[in-house]
Amino acid sequence: MSFxxxxxxxxxxxxxxRIRSHVMKGKNVGKMYERRTHRREExxxxxxxxxxxxxxxxxxxxxxQGQETNDVSVPRTIGNSFSTFTxxxxxxxxxxxxxxxxxxxxxDAVYPKEFCLPLDAKKSLLFEYLQTDEAFFHSSxxxxxxxxxxxxxxxxSSPRVLQHMWNTYRCVSHDLQAKxxxxxxxxxxxxxxxxxxxxxxxxxxxxxxxDAVFRMVELRNGIAQFATNTVxxxxxxxxxxxxxxxxxSSPYFYRDEFPRQILQSASAQADHENNxxxxxxxxxxxxxxxxxxxxDLMSISCLFNDDxxxxxxxxxxxxxxxxxxxxxxxxxxxxxxxxxDRNNDNACHIGLLALITTMIFKHGRHxxxxxxxxxxxxxxxxxxTLDKESIxxxxxxxxxxxxxxSQT
Length: 408
Known about the structure:
The chain is mainly alpha-helical.
């Protein structure tokens, strides 16, 4: 049996449209609809709104009334220059971003563009360790997070830092058990952990890691065995110098690769009115080691200050300048040891060390001078100089009074 008022045929798309149109006839009577039109031009965003493809960034600086300054809009980017690289373990997005920011900031600070030619951090041997060695990978994440925490003056280590430190210890222990002598990436990982403890203001753990580095280098038959790995040997020397400045002792190693040939070649092209050697002699420095350091620094300063040459050093050569000067000064007169006999030599030695420390990159709460012994010696040298000038002025005034009295 079939019902005549029911259409039993299949309903296609056209039939559905007719049914919906018939149903809506009664409901749409008297209603007016505007035709949709597309805007031909995009409205210009007002201040505080993002433009097309951009992201608004709130300024961290506020006015005197606590109001925010104008927003800045920057083009939106997808990923960064590290997005195409692979690492020893599967990483989360925040890890890649953290490493990118840390490497970018530290590269600019350790190799300042005012003195160095451009550096491509991705071509560094340490970046190769970051991609291939799990211990160095975790240590790099740890120091990156420590720097972030230190910048915001976080007193306690975050869970992420502790996790990456634990993974670093695990990997280093495994590497040392598997090999008789520590590999270059393993030493680099322990160096990084030492710097982490330094930034975190943990002197006991810092000393433990530095001593471990010294022991590892000796197991490799000394610092000379790392001569071909410039970036690693410079990293070892910087930690050695930092530790000597803290302790006031002589450094454990010694390295003098001051780029004198580069300076001599560049100086031949420059036209300097003053000879650095004669300038050093005029400072009345009697100590031969200090005088040599002064000549080297004056020579390179003349080149840096020559606007016509626009002289810049290769990044590794710039580090060799700092390392060479620091080692010569600290081995000649350790901060906690005997001082120079002549006051001029002592003031020159302390002043040069203070200068070098301003060129060593420091993180977080250590951005101010953390070397207590150096600060004390510098204060004493300045005080002695002021007292001596005061005595000389008093003596000159007394002699003048005696001359006047004798004439009357």
